[in-house]
Amino acid sequence: MTRIVLGVEYDGSGFFGWQWQTNLPSVQGELEKALSKVANHPITVICAGRTDTGVHALEQVVHFDVNVERELDAWLLGGNCNLPDAIRITWVKQAIGDFHARYSAIARLYRYVILNRPVKSALMGKQTTWCYHPLDAEVMNKAAQHLLGSHDFSSFRAQGCQSKSPVRIVHFVEVYRDGDQVIIEICANAFLHHMVRNIAGVLIDIGVGKQAEDWTLVLLAAKKRAVGGVTAPPYGLYLESVYYPDCYGISKHPAFNRLPEDAKRFN
């Protein structure tokens, strides 16, 4: 068997999340169907991190095992020919060593994009979250810094989250304004279910002045989802990139240059 690794970009607004579902469109289902046509046998793919309904990816990392020989370009070109327009394979390579898209990942980088203007967008309604109240990005950024390090994120996890531990390590987080958009970038070793959307909801309430800057500290101490605020919509959320050890030869997003050296040992 040969293990193939893909970079995948998708607009999640037309799918019921990453994971395959009976009678519902999913990113995994479409990708497996397209790759199976190239392989001429059923393909099962494993991703770095499952995304929810409506969530996008700039670079999801995926692997699959295959027992037929194909040129790497065949997976790229043939796969894309069989995929809907909302999903694209952006790069392909053969796996090195014991690479696993999920378990070899050291860190994930997410981006949350908020359109902050009085009028909704006619073009980006499913690619951004709209907030018409003016947001103070500087205050949001200060509040976000309280999340750095290892914490119990129970106040920021979905009530149905199945993770055995609520503890995650946030390596860096930044909130900044770019024109009429306010962008949240957050990197952690892993994320709980709805963790980024819940963080975004909290920071939005802080940004519009509904809550104080130290509310993030209060919620971390509370360790209760019931006091954790509103879950922000999925449409502004993107899986931006995934970080792997150098030995696997996966190109790194420039933002990962900010990872502290000791963070590269976390799994």
* Fourth CATH level, the homologous superfamily of the largest domain: Pseudouridine synthase I, catalytic domain, C-terminal subdomain
> What is the annotated CATH architecture of the largest domain?
2-Layer Sandwich
Uncertain spans, ≥5 residues at pLDDT below 50?
Answer: none
Number of helices: 5
Question: Would you tell me the structural class of the helices and strands?
Answer: alpha+beta
H-E string: EHEEHEEEHEEEHHE
- Gross geometry: globular
What is the CATH top level name of the largest domain?
Answer: Alpha Beta
Proportion in helices = 10-25%
Alpha-carbon Rg, integer? 19 Å
- Percentage of residues in DSSP E strands: 25-35%
pLDDT average, as an integer? 94
Terminal CA distance reads 26 Å
CATH topology type of the largest domain: Alpha-Beta Plaits
Number of domains: 2
Number of strands: 10
Largest sheet: 10 strands, mixed
